[in-house]
Write a structure and sequence with these properties.
The chain is mostly helical and 264 residues long. It is 77% helix and 0% strand. It has eleven helices and no strands. The chain has helices spanning 2-16, 23-34, 39-56, 58-66, 71-96, 106-127, 137-152, 158-168, 174-202, 210-234, 241-259.
């Protein structure tokens, strides 16, 4: 049953990591019924979803790396690096301050509802701006900060926070904002996974079910590949409104269940 739970959690992570509906929030909710997992488990299976994005964007990544001498590639890569550094530094600060994920549903439900309303407002505001694919210094800084906000408040959604932050401060084109947000997530999640794994191996790794983690990692990778491929096609002709509505409805149902005492 533990491996079955790992498969279910891997599917949930793969579907929700890049859809703007909060993977961490969904995992915490699922673990209320399937059994709580360690922070290492949750972060490493997120890296499985990041691996899927790495595969999808491998041409773009190689182009940025091998075409460093081209000004447009160099400027883009430096902004990716800036966003990552901001996230890494502030993430370490949060870790040193003892930040941990919440153990109850209420803050996640609130974040889902508030985030859904914010998404509707943000996309309407971005639609009023001239269509732009430019990734400025401001976009890089705000995206780095948005990743930290999403990490501290589960239910916010890293992809939602970064995509809409980018759209509101300059990269109003949905596809351009999404690409930058996804590419920034690659080094961010790999670094977070490496940090957690280092801590586990340093402590002997005795408390982690590595078999279940590997199963969830593989499932997350495959599921995320399918989900991201679908999303990249979807946003070419659709707004994110459907995801915002889902967040509001799902969050409201969780708030109702909490009020009735069905969940803690």
């Amino acid at each position: 049953m533990d491996y079955l739970s790992a498969i279910i959690l891997g599917v949930i992570e793969g579907i929700t990591e890049f859809l703007p509906i909060s993977s961490t929030g969904h995992l915490i909710i699922a673990e209320h019924w399937l059994g709580e997992r360690s922070d290492t488990f949750n972060i490493v299976i997120q890296a499985g979803a990041i691996l899927a994005v790495t595969i999808i964007y491998w041409r773009r990544i190689f182009d940025l790396a091998l075409g460093w001498r081209r000004p447009e590639n160099r400027h883009y890569a430096i902004r990716l690096l800036l966003a990552f550094v901001i996230t890494a530094v502030l993430g370490l600060v949060a870790k040193k301050l003892g930040f941990t994920l919440p153990e109850n549903i209420l803050p996640i439900a609130i974040a889902l509802v508030v985030g859904g309303v914010w998404m509707i407002w943000a996309e309407r505001q971005a639609a009023k701006l001239p269509d732009s694919v430019r990734i400025t210094w401001l976009v890089a800084i705000v995206v780095g900060l948005a990743q930290i906000v999403a990490g501290i408040f589960p239910g916010t959604s890293r992809s939602a926070a970064t995509i809409f932050a980018a759209m509101l401060v300059g990269a109003s084109n949905r596809a351009a904002a999404t690409e930058f947000a996804f590419l920034v997530g690659i080094p961010t999640m790999y670094a977070a996974s490496a940090y957690e794994l280092y801590g586990q191996f340093k402590d002997g790794g005795a408390h982690e079910d590595w078999g279940a983690l590997c199963v969830a990692f593989v499932v997350s990778t495959v599921t995320a590949f399918i989900a991201v491929k679908w999303l990249l096609g979807y946003i070419q002709t659709h707004r994110f409104t459907a995801f915002a509505i889902y967040r509001i409805i799902f969050g409201a149902l969780l708030l109702g269940a909490a009020a009735l005492g069905w969940i803690a």
